[in-house]
Please model this.
Amino acid sequence: MLQAGHSMEIDAKGKRPRASSSSLTGGDRLSSLPDCLIHHIMSFMKARQVVQTCVLSTRWKRLWRSVPCLDIDQDEFKTDEGSDHDWEKFEDFTDHLLIPNNISIGLLDTFRLHVSAMYKGPQATRWIRHGIKYSTQEAGIQRRGLGSSSWRLKRLDLSNVHLNDSFTEHVSSGCQNLEYLELKSCTCTFHEITSHSLKNLILKHCRCYELSAITSPKLKSLIINIWGN
Model:
């Protein structure tokens, strides 16, 4: 009896039919999914894992470049060789990942950056600055000069990063679609946060003693847990 799901091959001489190899292995069902579903799956993966999918097949070679969620985590690079060595690998990876024509930063819905070592926070700040810069450039190109360019980003999560007034200025001017901002264990020297789109703001275990004003007419949820208090 022919079992369901097994295709049979019969040659012209009437030899015994055999199941095709693709039917026995089940085929590459994941690759048969549409891009939107694969991107959704990638949204639950860390950035290093997402990039590694490029070796799976020809189709996967460029899929990772247009993911809607980018989760860069230094913990992915932890080894037994020591923090400095781990940081160098993490830094090289992130530097190359965020260059133009690599990840489509301007198309991101969610961006997460987790830095394990607090003392590396100032160096990590440039990734945020460059990310906003490149994303707004991409947006400008896509709109072909029609209207102001803005990062379409809706969610931004940062951990152990140093953030100053230039960061909040970028958020105000370049992240006009941002709805969710979460800062964890960050050193914040900015004086105010201004956003016309922000709905949820979380400052958790942050050092932000200079913060004096939060201006966001659409804000629905505010959680502030300042470190040391």
About this structure: Residues 159 and 184 are 5 Å apart (CA to CA). Residues 1-26, 144-148 have pLDDT under 50 and may be disordered.
